[in-house]
Amino acid sequence: MPAERLLPDTESEDLLKLTREIARDELAPLAAEHEELGRFPREQFRLLGRSGLLGLPYPEKWGGSALPYEVYLQVLEEVASAWMSVGVGLSVHTMSCYALAEHGTDEQRARWLPDMLGGDLLGAYALSESQAGSDAAALSTRARPDGDDYVVNGTKAWITHGGQADFYTTMVRTSDDGSRGISCLLVDAATPGLGFGAPEKKMGLTGSTTTQVRFEDARVGTGRLLGAEGQGFKIALTALNSGRLGIAACAVGLAQAALDEAVAYAKQRSQFGRAVIEFQGIEFLLADMAAAVESSRATYLEAARRRDRGLPFLRQASIAKLVATDAAMRVTTDAVQVLGGAGYTRDFPVERYLREAKVPQIFEGTNQIQRMVIARQLRGH
Ligand SMILES: Cc1cc2nc3c(=O)[nH]c(=O)nc-3n(C[C@H](O)[C@H](O)[C@H](O)COP(=O)(O)OP(=O)(O)OC[C@H]3O[C@@H](n4cnc5c(N)ncnc54)[C@H](O)[C@@H]3O)c2cc1C
């Protein structure tokens, strides 16, 4: 269990308590089986929606809870600690609502946002393409205006919730002017011409479906353009700045779960006549794991508090994502070590945690890209 949290008010404490109950009773018991079978946790997202957890940082006017980011992220951490695929999904959903919440007109918000924040609709965020990963501005999915519609053609790659989501916040090319030729469309899953690839066969996070999203003469109404034409790349990057704080929180939750498992095992496993936790070699390993978890948590909270106060937080968000996801990789690897041979089997969750820890170092900007963002900030441009 993490150290007692320092939350801003009793309302936030109550919310975290509720989240811990849901995580313990409704998520954790199902995680291993769903992950083993690659079963998407749609029902669990409905439960989060009914519990008011799918719109936490957004305005109450549109069905959100207007909570500070530092509270939202701690809720997210608890969810990820119980089930990483659901935590990542909650983070992706929250990010996919950002474009409409921040850049939509009041009319657009009133029409779609309450269902998105209220849990009736699950979101996806579609930026990457097979030839446009780290260099996302090279994307080529094209939207051509035709009357009251855009006609969209192209293929998005690696889309979390592909084929499961109800809406796709999609970055498309509306002109050849590089990153200034990209626009953002809110695409309904039922749009004719929208199709999905087979789920990617991944190393971990197998409960979270990842597919290509294909557009073949898909007609999307011009009323679904979010922000102005050409603003899409800026919107996508701003959403990612906050989104990667969500990934940092998920990584901390995963690392905390691995640490808890390692401590529990080391207390009850005896060798040479005593519990292995009494050997300094194990004790120091666990101490380093705890230091990594708690310092990563402090790092994302610092970035979130800057965001909540309206201060620049770009560098801090990239640092949080880099530090927390690298820490989760180390902590989950060390958790397997603490469990010895048992840790290498599927009888214990730590081998799954290790597999799940790899991808947060890759998505929402690889950790190489985070270093570029940090270095660019240090250079001052
Ligand atoms: C499970 C999963 C879920 C995902 N979900 C989504 C999603 O929901 N929506 C979405 O839009 N995308 C999603 N992605 C895509 C993800 O964001 C990309 O995989 C990521 O941005 C990296 O792109 P890439 O895989 O093409 O790698 P590449 O860009 O081809 O990178 C290959 C390697 O080169 C390095 N590299 C690239 N450029 C540089 C540079 N300039 N300097 C130093 N090193 C560099 C990278 O760090 C990496 O190590 C997901 C990916 C995965 C695996």
| Radius of gyration based on Cα positions | 21 Å
Domain module tally: 3
Q: Name the CATH architecture of the largest domain.
A: Up-down Bundle
Overall mean pLDDT stands at 97
Strand and helix order? HHHHHEEEEEEEEHEEHHHH
Strand content is: 5-15%
Main β-sheet, spatial strand arrangement: 1-4-5-8
CATH class of the largest domain: Mainly Alpha
Q: What is the CATH superfamily of the largest domain?
A: Butyryl-CoA Dehydrogenase, subunit A, domain 3
Number of beta strands: 10
Tally the helices: what do you get? Answer: 10
Query: Any idea of the CATH topology of the largest domain?
Result: Butyryl-CoA Dehydrogenase, subunit A, domain 3
Q: Segments where pLDDT lies below 50 for 5+ residues?
A: none
Shape: globular
Bound molecules: flavin-adenine dinucleotide
Helix content: 40-55%
- From the helix content, strand content and strand pairing, which structural class follows? alpha+beta
Describe the sheet with the most strands. Answer: 4 strands, mixed
End-to-end distance, in Å? 41 Å
Structure description:
The protein is built from ten helices and ten strands. The protein has 381 residues and is of the alpha+beta class. Helix 4 packs antiparallel against helix 5 (106-118), helix 6 packs parallel to helix 8 (314-339) and helix 8 runs antiparallel to helix 9 (350-358). It is globular, with a radius of gyration of 21 Å. The mean pLDDT is 97. Bound molecules: flavin-adenine dinucleotide. Flavin-adenine dinucleotide binds next to strand 1, strand 3 and helix 10. Flavin-adenine dinucleotide (FAD) is lined by residues 92, 125-128, 133-134, 158-160, 202, 205, 210, 359, 362-366, 368-369, 372.
